[in-house]
Design a protein that fits this description.
This protein is an alpha+beta fold and 766 residues long. It is built from 15 helices and 45 strands. The protein has 2 domains: 102 residues, no CATH class; 452 residues, Methylamine Dehydrogenase, Chain H. About 6% of the residues have low confidence.
Length: 766
């Protein structure tokens, strides 16, 4: 056992060091101009915040002590490493990184019982004190401190159980599951995936037989799990089934309950306020959940993709009138510099959505629209300015709508030579609106140091007609902010306590950070660097980027589009994991691969799974939200989806020139319409949405409505088409005709943000 631990450990450290060397060599090649032609780009892997040499040396010493069974020495160094280098990252797989602190706990958990006894003599007094105080006061922070600092202490498993119970009470079902699954090795598969994902499609009886047969042949887990719990396994498994039931994930709950009956048919106890056989309690709860009426969800559309999970599914489908309630031409309200290029028609396969810059919001009865310098508020149903003192609907900046904040037109003009097009969106939480204001250029060539003007983050109060609450950075810090070449990737997210955002620094290489501001004051709480990497335009051109965070149950997820996907905790910015995906290594700037033309492409969160389509990769990825482990990766795609609309009815809907239906659990591409290589069929134009059991897919002239589910028709798989809404109706006056664009729903209104105007159509519910 100890020799095996040391071998794995030393291998991981060596691989991490080799990766640092390889990345450095690639970076030097890039900086020496090792490209074949001016219009070609080369990309290396993302560079992660790897452990410094001092820590690596100490890790090698630990490996030697483990080999010699010098437990005291190994434990002492591991505790020092966790204390001094805990926030650094170490590669634990070929594509996955964990914090040094978490990895040290993994090594401690793999030690034999006598070594664990030595460790617990060191830490149990402090761990027990925190645990008892945390239980008495229901203090989640104290219990989390036990798990973070002393995971392998005697009360580590009790803290995990209590934290999961607290998360369940808050309705954080996935977070609860992630705590409980760390209590015992048998609660996950050998590679650290939930049993639902690891055995998807396998009969519960066979899975139960596999678990029984392998119970005496356990390998060392490759994920962090408590080593020797005394908590009864049926009580924990019952909680896992309960979380699926309460979450409304009926297919998963049925499968888990069937597995539970095979494993613990007669076990009794107390669960969900009831006493008796666990299986009977869970069966009754499942029946009740199935018969419960669905709770209506708010129709507000408060951020890009509708929600912080980037997975908004409206509660009911609707019919659309093709006669608008109102429309506003951008040219009538916006500065000329903020308008899409005039008379620019899409040319080529990769630019079919050129000119679709705007992603409006609906908050209550307000329709909100922004560009680089202006923010507008209208009544969603009438299109009239929301506030009497806002000419043309403009609420920011106050005053003449033809002027920018600095009193001169045109500051926000996009003069970038990036592969990205402009993208405008915002976020609303409560009565607060958050927006990025200023240029969308996030990095410039090194020689353009003079006159560097970045962007700003602002918070407006909608209850005070858009009055400015705060700005970040504050005016006194702006000069330093610009000299240090900071910029914001896009609008932030908020949970009412913090405001979470992506920042970028540098020019020749992009350094990506995640930061948290105070909700009330806008002051900086924490900022964490997550990776840096070269980009297609490198240091020779201006670059515009729009990377957005995803938020669910107190955890942030970020697709950096730089070769890494990252998860952080909102409370303190603790990096939970980093997944390093394979990037496209080279290409042409003049004719880049289609996936480089994706606009806003944040992670989509769905019931413990993170789904993402990075623009610098040919694949779609599904990751375990708790560990960052790969669940599935799509086949390389020749025609690439531009948008991940979300997951509903177990199906991931992805759209672009076509619609793709993916099984969200297995990753199987079950259907695509129309075939991507068919040039005589409709092509998507704008971002669609999910409502009820349907997907609404806009083209230039129509909106197509399809089922979200794929059904079998003999040997074929098909998707029923439910409706087609004609937008360019000949009986409607030319000035009222509408075209496709980005779709947003709220206040019984469909907004279509097209290339030249914002249009509002009334909805009818069947």
């Amino acid at each position: 056992m100890p020799g095996h631990i040391a071998l794995i450990f030393a291998t991981i450290v060596i691989l991490s060091l080799l990766q640092i060397t390889t990345v450095a060599a690639q970076v030097n090649l890039f900086r020496r101009g090792g490209r074949s032609a001016p219009d070609q780009f080369q990309l290396s892997a993302a560079e992660i915040k790897n452990i410094p040499n001092e820590a690596a040396t100490n890790f090698i010493r630990v490996a030697a002590f483990l080999e010699e069974e010098s437990w005291e020495d190994a434990i002492e160094i591991l505790q020092l490493l966790a204390e001094q280098f805990g926030d650094y990252l170490v590669g634990v797989d070929s594509d996955r990184y964990l914090s040094v602190r978490r990895y040290c706990e993994m090594l401690l958990a793999a030690m034999p019982p006598d070594a664990l006894d030595l460790y617990r003599k060191r830490v149990d007094a402090a761990a027990l004190d925190w645990y008892n105080k945390g239980i008495a006061a229901q203090d989640e922070q104290l219990l989390q401190r036990v798990v973070d600092r002393f995971f392998c202490s005697t009360v580590g498993d009790d803290a995990l159980l209590a934290l999961g119970d607290q998360e369940l009470e808050k309705g954080y079902y996935d977070r609860a599951r992630s705590y409980w699954e760390q209590i015992d090795q048998d609660l996950k598969s050998a590679d650290g995936l939930s049993l639902w994902h690891a055995y998807y499609g396998v009969d519960a009886q066979k899975v139960a037989a596999d678990l029984h047969s392998s119970s005496d042949l356990k390998e060392e887990p490759r994920w962090l799990v408590y080593p020797d719990t005394d908590i009864e396994l049926p009580a924990v498994r019952g909680r896992l089934v309960l979380s699926s039931i309460l979450q409304g994930d009926i297919p998963r709950a049925r499968w888990e309950l069937a597995l539970f009956r095979r494993l613990h048919a007669t076990q009794e106890g107390h669960l969900a306020g009831r006493t008796g056989a666990y299986a009977d309690i869970l069966s009754e709860l499942l029946r009740e959940q199935i018969t419960l009426p669905q709770r209506p969800a708010s129709e507000d559309w408060l951020t890009f993709a509708g929600s912080p999970t980037r997975n908004r599914v409206l509660p009911a489908s609707f019919d659309i009138s093709s006669i608008p309630n109102w429309n506003i031409h951008y040219a009538d309200i916006m500065q000329e510099s903020e308008l899409p290029a005039k008379n620019k028609q899409p040319t080529g396969a990769d630019s079919h959505e050129e000119g679709l810059y705007f992603h409006p919001l609906i908050a209550g009865n307000l329709a909100l629209l922004n560009n680089s310098e202006q923010i507008f508020a209208f009544r969603a149903k009438s299109g009239k300015p929301a506030f009497a003192g806002s000419p043309g609907g403009q609420i920011y900046p106050e005053g003449d709508p033809t002027l920018t904040e600095n009193g001169r037109s045109g500051k926000g003009r996009m003069r970038a030579t990036s592969l990205d097009r402009p993208q405008h969106s915002m976020t609303v939480f409560g009565n607060h609106l958050f927006a990025r204001i200023g240029t969308q250029i996030t990095s410039r060539p090194p020689e353009s140091a003079t006159g560097y003007a970045g962007n700003r983050l602002i918070c407006l109060n909608l209850n005070r007609e858009g009055a400015l609450e705060w700005k970040y950075p504050r005016r006194r810090d702006e000069a330093l902010f610009d000299r240090e070449r900071w910029s914001f990737e896009g609008p932030p997210l908020s949970d009412g306590d913090g405001v979470y955002l992506v920042m970028r620094q540098g020019s020749s290489r992009a350094a990506c950070y995640v930061a948290c501001l105070d909700f009330q004051t806008g002051s900086l709480r924490w900022r964490r660097k997550v990776c840096d990497a070269d980009t297609p335009v490198g240091g020779r051109r201006n670059e515009t980027t729009h990377n957005l965070l995803t938020l669910c149950e107190g955890i942030l997820y970020l697709n950096t589009n730089l070769g890494a996907i990252v998860s952080l905790r909102v409370a303190d910015g603790d990096v939970r994991w980093v997944y390093q995906y394979p990037r496209v290594t080279s290409g042409s700037l003049r004719h880049p691969p289609a996936h480089f033309k994706r606009g806003l492409n944040p992670c989509v969160y769905y019931r413990g799974v993170v789904l993402t389509a990075p623009r610098d990769s040919r694949f779609l990825f599904a990751l375990d939200a708790g560990s960052g482990r790969l669940i599935w990766r799509s086949a390389p795609m020749m025609a690439h989806p531009m948008h991940l609309l979300g997951v509903s009815n177990g199906t991931l809907l992805a759209t672009g020139k076509s619609i793709w239906w993916f099984n969200a659990v297995s990753g199987r591409a079950e259907h695509v319409w129309p075939e991507p290589d068919n040039q005589n069929t409709p092509r998507g134009y704008g971002r669609g949405l999910l409502a009820g059991d349907f997907v609404y897919w806009p083209t230039r002239e129509k909106i197509y409505v399809f089922d979200q589910r794929v059904v079998k028709d003999g040997s074929r798989r098909v998707v029923p088409q439910r409706a087609t809404i004609d937008l360019l109706r000949p009986d409607v006056p030319v000035e009222q005709r509408i075209t496709g664009g980005n779709l947003v729903v709220g206040d019984d209104t469909l907004l279509i943000a097209g290339q030249t105007q914002l249009q509002a159509l009334p909805l009818r519910y069947p």
